[in-house]
């Protein structure tokens, strides 16, 4: 396990982040927030997938007034994402949200910022400053010669520091920061730079990462580098897809670095000409069934149950033996291993149920 940066500890509703706590998984709804029923339904799906913090966009007062009703029907911390309008922030706080995402430099006069900060402090609501490269372009970039990774990263950080300074000037320190760019290099450089200057918790993300496949790859690379650096207290994988997919990908990233356990780790071979069972179909079915089991065991660092599902007897038994339970394909059947010991054979149509029953017993 690598060293994790010790950031300031901050409470977001019933969750504590920072200070080396497990990296928390966040997502964002894509329903209209004013539609309480649809938004609650989606948040519950996210909760089922293991989401630990949920953010909703608050584009207008109707949405802000819906926040209390949403909050009452969910069990994870609710974050209100607000741009420019301090009245929406004040309403969100009075509706009982657990965190605000707002950039204080963008909400007008010092008096308006003060109103928000005073209310947030009183309600113990932390504020995430979220600087996005896209929204900086017009303000900060001057020429293509200056459009280098280092330059863009510095500008992102400079903007974040400006917003941080405003909050600090009101003695407000419950701050979380994100510095998102749509390219990995800028994002990584910016987070590294900021973490050398401030110890506020970092919310990691690659913004506008793209479709399920493209976004997964991009986020895995970018977030993987930062997490491996020991940075990051919360993460969001931004995908142009169902937000539930964001949560699943986030856990896979964290599990692959040993930062979180989703309860079950599946090892499966890529298949080749030696494989005589429908391994791809079996593994897809298994993963589908595991989603429901995993959500109950998303808690932290406990060692996952290791399952190996292998196509044939060449590498199969070796991998299967390493796992808590494994099946290695053979002609029209599978050799079952439990804790490295052969324990009989299982026909292919019973592999999934055999593995699922084992996990359920665990
Ligand atoms: S375990 Fe067997 S089927 Fe799977 S890739 Fe290796 S040799 Fe091929």
Describe this structure in words.
Helix 7 (184-197) packs parallel to helix 8 and helix 10 (279-295) packs parallel to helix 12 (351-361). The chain is 43% helix and 19% strand. It has an eight-stranded parallel beta sheet with strand order 8-7-6-5-4-3-10-9. The protein folds into two domains: 10-256, Dihydropteroate synthase-like (TIM Barrel, Alpha-Beta Barrel); 264-361, Sulfite Reductase Hemoprotein, domain 1, CATH 3.30.413.10. It is an alpha/beta fold and 362 residues long. The protein starts with 9 loop residues before the first strand and ends with a helix. The site of iron/sulfur cluster has 12 residues, from loops.
Major beta sheet, strand line-up: 8-7-6-5-4-3-10-9
Strand content: 15-25%
Q: Helix content range of the residues, please?
A: 40-55%
Mean pLDDT: 90
**Major β-sheet annotation:** 8 strands, parallel
CATH superfamily of the largest domain: Dihydropteroate synthase-like
Strand elements, count: 15
The global form is elongated
Total of domains: 2
CATH architecture assignment name of the largest domain: Alpha-Beta Barrel
**Class of secondary structure makeup:** alpha/beta
Q: What is the end-to-end distance?
A: 25 Å
Oligomer: single chain
Number of separate helices: 12
Outline of the structure:
The protein is an alpha/beta fold and 362 residues long. Helix content is 43%, strand content 19%.
Keywords:
binds iron/sulfur cluster, 362 residues, 8-stranded parallel β-sheet, 2 domains, Sulfite Reductase Hemoprotein, domain 1, alpha/beta, 5-stranded mixed β-sheet, TIM Barrel
